[in-house]
Design goal:
Layout: H1 11-35, H2 38-49, E1 54-58, H3 61-75, E2 80-82, H4 85-88, E3 101-105, H5 115-123, E4 127-132, H6 138-142, E5 145-148, H7 164-184, H8 188-194, H9 198-203, H10 207-210, E6 212-213, E7 219-221, H11 226-236, E8 240-244, E9 250-255, H12 256-261, H13 272-275, E10 277-278, E11 282-284, H14 289-298, E12 303-307, E13 314-319, H15 320-325
Parallel strand pairs: 1-2, 1-3, 3-4, 4-5, 7-8, 11-12
Antiparallel strand pairs: 6-13, 8-9, 9-10, 12-13
Length: 329
Amino acid sequence: MKQANLNSISLHDDLEEAYRVLRLEAEALLTLAQGLDESFQKALNIIMETEGRIILAGIGKSGHVAHKIAATFSSTGTPAFFIHPSEASHGDLGMITPKDTLLILSLSGETAELSDIIAYAKRFNILIIAITCKRGSLLSKAAKCTLLLPSFVEACPLGLAPTTSTTLMLGLGDAMAVSLLKRKGFSENDFKNLHPGGRLGKKLLHVADLMRPYEELPLVSKETLMSEALVTMTEKGFGCIGVLNERGQLMGIVTDGDLRRHMSSDLLNKKVEDIMTHSPKTIFSSSFAGEAVGFMNRNAITNLFVLEENTDKLVGLLRLHDCLREGLV
């Protein structure tokens, strides 16, 4: 393989080639989007009516794309998995049940390795959705629904390496997954349940997941003397106390900063309401924890009392320290 002299390659040449590739793929995606028709909706209907799993299959680069589509489906509320056609021919066909639907990817629709899985599907009346370029292919003829890819030019200058074609398949898979997500009313809470780990899972934590519950809160009435309030503040160890009115509603907060600002010889004889900060900043328990961290950072505070949405009932306390411990920054 002949290699170019690195010193002879200009930045302009590299960027020009990158632009050519991305432009070709972007134009192909736009053509795909503009050409979608009732077949797309039919495919969604078949998937929605499937009692079992959506089973993805493909060979080569199409197989890699099928892997990704299966993962995206599963993480957005449509249970799916990938099966390798060659492995299927050696026993893995047993993973497919009559309640499942096959989503098979093949540019030509004539890939030899797909023949066994297609024959198996026909034998047991398992529905097939095909993604292919050729409507008259073996795969398309066996399919209940065919999603036909538009004409395209591979971005590979040799016209050999799957580039534009796999981009089209991947984009179509994403379009299906997101359309199904919207149909099913898949929520942020549903997403969180399927993504409990990693940074994504942490981003979806709610304030209610991290807050200290009401029974642990440092709370006093507005008539309480500071001598008693300081004992409560020290015992709880949160660096603040919440001040309640006669109806038990949060009306103020006393922080370490308030103590420093009102430091005097008669501090202990004052009432809490004399030194508290009125109308403290709060957040709803249904808010995302990441949102709360940003709110605390912008306001240079480390504690937020938490209210129940719609009722404004005090239900907890969120500490910046607890958020940071969970990796929320």
